[in-house]
């Protein structure tokens, strides 16, 4: 997802997470300083990854949970990495729903699967989606808006 310069301007002006975009008495920090702040994953929050690999999914399955599922469910899981066209699986698709149905609430595998589709994201990614990045030039242009 992309952002507008007005959205970036408003984020910097409001600084709702108190990241320190401005210095007293309310003047903007340098463009590079602001860009670094808004792009720093340590200053963001958890975001949903848009894609995960079949290998990452398989690695989340515990042996205890594997033994508890049916032969048909095992076959379904074994097919995922064998399909040449599947290098990543879109988060939020039917495959995700099927995986969560196979591994019900209270299983370690379900908890692992829910965790693997998340990661720490920057403030830019929290606001505008995975992969969002603010350049120094974006900040400079946003600074000229009123």
List keywords for this structure.
single chain; 146 residues; mainly alpha; 2 domains; two-stranded antiparallel sheet; 6 strands; 51% helix
Describe this structure in words.
The longest helix is centred in the middle third of the chain and has 12 residues. The protein has 9 helices and 6 strands, in the order H-E-E-H-E-E-H-H-H-E-H-H-E-H-H. It is elongated and about 65 Å long. The strands form 3 sheets. It has a two-stranded antiparallel sheet. A two-stranded antiparallel ribbon has the order 3-6. The protein folds into 2 domains: 66 residues, no CATH class; 67 residues, no CATH class. A hairpin with a 3-residue loop joins strand 1 and strand 2. The protein is mostly helical and 146 residues long. The model has no long low-confidence stretch (mean pLDDT 90). 51% of the residues lie in helices and 11% in strands.
